[in-house]
Amino acid sequence: MAVMGVQMVVTLLAATVLHRISPYYSFGRWLLCNGSLFRYKHPTEDELRALAGKQKPKFKRERRPNGVSDEKPLTVPRDIDLHLETQPITTIDALVLRYFLEYQWFIDFSLYATIIYLFTEGYYCLVDTQNEINIGVLWCLMTILFSIKVLYTVMQHYFRSVEGGERSVCLTFAFFFLLIAMIVMIVREEYLEFGLEPGLTSFCQNLEHFLEQQGWQGSVPFIKLAFKIALVALCSFIGGCLTFPGLRLAQTHLDALKMAADRPMLQILLHASFLPPIIVVVMWIRPITRDFLLNAPMGKETVQIMSDSAYNTFRLWIIVILCVLRLCLTRFHLQAYLGLAEQFVERMKREVGRISMLEIQQKISRIFCYLTVVALQYLAPIMLTFHCVLLLKSLGDYSWGLYPEPPGFTPVVDFLPTKQPPTALPDEDNDTEDVQAAVEQIMGAASTLRSLFTPLFYRGFFAFLTWWVSVCQLITCLFGIYFHQYLGVS
C-alpha cells in the first residue's frame, strides 16, 4: 500500500530545487531586484557642503573642562536645495539588507508550497488515490508556521528597540486582541458561522473515546475550556505579530495613492487591494452574507440565489482572488515605502535651523536598509491567509467547483488502520522488514489523527484562523489610517 507515491517524488524534487537552485534563481530576489524598484541614494558630504556653500570641511570643536576637545559633525541648513538621486535596486544592493536571507527563503518556500499544492490538487482530480497522504497539505501547514515565525521575528526586532515605544504598542494591541478573542468565543453560531463549536465538540468526543480506549479518563468540558484558552492565547499572539504589519500597510497604502495620483485605474486597484480584510470579515457574518445570498428577500417571498456548497466555493475563490490581487500590487507598496526618503527631504526643507550631515545620510539610508522588513510585513499576512484558505478547502472537504467530487470526498488521509502487520516472505531481508514496520507506524499514526481531527473540526478551526487574521489586519490598518492621515504622523 502506497504511503506517498508520486507525491513523494515531487516533494523531493521541490526540496532539491529549493536547496540547490534558489541561491541562483530566486523569486523573492527577483521581486526586489528586477529593475522595477528604485532606491534613493543618500548625498555625500561633498555634495552637502556644495549645497550649503562650503568648500572645505570645518569641524566645530567643543572643549571640555578636562581639556579634551570633541569634534562635532558638520551641519548644514535644513532648507538647502537637496534633490536625491535614484538607482534601480540590484542584487548586490539587496544582499546588505536586514533579514534579506530570511525574506528570500520564505518567499521561495511559499512559492514551492503553492506549486506542490496545485500539483496534488490536479493529481487527486485525475487519480483515485484514497490510500495516499496529501503532501500539499503538509507544505501549506509548514508555510503557515513559517509565516507566523517570520512575523514573530520581525516583532522581536521592535521589542529590542529602546526608543520609540514599539514594545508598548505591540503589548497594547496584543492585550486588546485578547479581549476581542474572548468576546468572539461567546458569540453564537447564528452570527459568526465558523463552525468552531460543532468541530470542537466532535474533537472532544473523539478524544474522550480515544482516551478511554487507552485506559485514561478525560472530561469534555475541561478539554473544551483548555482548547478555547489556548486558542485565545494564539489569537492574542497573532494579533501582536500583525500590529506593525497593519500599521505599515496603512502608511504604504496612503503613500501609494499619492504616488498614483495621476493614474485612476491604479488607484482603483490600490483601493481594491485594501478591501480584502473587510470582505473576509464580512463573509463569515451570517446575517449579512449567507442568509442574504442563500435566501434573498424579494418582496414578500425569498429567492435562493445559490446553494450552501456553492456559497462555500464562492467564498474560497473570493479570498484567493483578493490575495492574488494584493500580491500583484507588492511593487507599488514597496516603492511607496522607498519614497519616504524623498518625503523626509521635502519635510526637512520646510523646517528652519540646521541639521548634521550624518543625520541626513542615516535617515535616507535607513529607509532602504529596512526594505526587506517591510516586504515581509506586507507578504507574510498574504501567505498566511492564502494557505489557511488552501487548508480550509482540503482538510474541510470543500470543493473548488471546477470538477465534480463525490460526497464525503477526503483527499487527506482515507484509510483504516491495519490490524495485523504484513507477513514477510522468507527471503526478505531485515531492511525490507524495517521499511514495512515504518510504513505500518506511519499509517497507524495517520489513522489515529484522522479519527481525532475530523473535517468538521478543520472547517471550524481554519475558517476561524482565516477570519481572525483578517480581523487583526482590519483593526490595525484602520488605526494606521487614522494615525497617519489625521494625526499628521508620517
TrEMBL record:
<feature type="transmembrane region" description="Helical">
    <location>
        <begin position="268"/>
        <end position="285"/>
    </location>
</feature>
<feature type="transmembrane region" description="Helical">
    <location>
        <begin position="367"/>
        <end position="392"/>
    </location>
</feature>
<keyword id="KW-1133">Transmembrane helix</keyword>
<dbReference type="GO" id="GO:0016020">
    <property type="term" value="C:membrane"/>
</dbReference>
<feature type="transmembrane region" description="Helical">
    <location>
        <begin position="461"/>
        <end position="483"/>
    </location>
</feature>
<keyword id="KW-0325">Glycoprotein</keyword>
<feature type="transmembrane region" description="Helical">
    <location>
        <begin position="167"/>
        <end position="187"/>
    </location>
</feature>
<keyword id="KW-0472">Membrane</keyword>
<feature type="transmembrane region" description="Helical">
    <location>
        <begin position="316"/>
        <end position="340"/>
    </location>
</feature>
<keyword id="KW-0732">Signal</keyword>
<feature type="transmembrane region" description="Helical">
    <location>
        <begin position="105"/>
        <end position="124"/>
    </location>
</feature>
<feature type="signal peptide">
    <location>
        <begin position="1"/>
        <end position="23"/>
    </location>
</feature>
<comment type="similarity">
    <text>Belongs to the TMEM161 family.</text>
</comment>
<keyword id="KW-0812">Transmembrane</keyword>
<protein>
    <recommendedName>
        <fullName>Transmembrane protein 161A</fullName>
    </recommendedName>
</protein>
<feature type="transmembrane region" description="Helical">
    <location>
        <begin position="136"/>
        <end position="155"/>
    </location>
</feature>
<dbReference type="Pfam" id="PF10268">
    <property type="entry name" value="Tmemb_161AB"/>
</dbReference>
<feature type="transmembrane region" description="Helical">
    <location>
        <begin position="225"/>
        <end position="247"/>
    </location>
</feature>
<dbReference type="InterPro" id="IPR019395">
    <property type="entry name" value="Transmembrane_161A/B"/>
</dbReference>
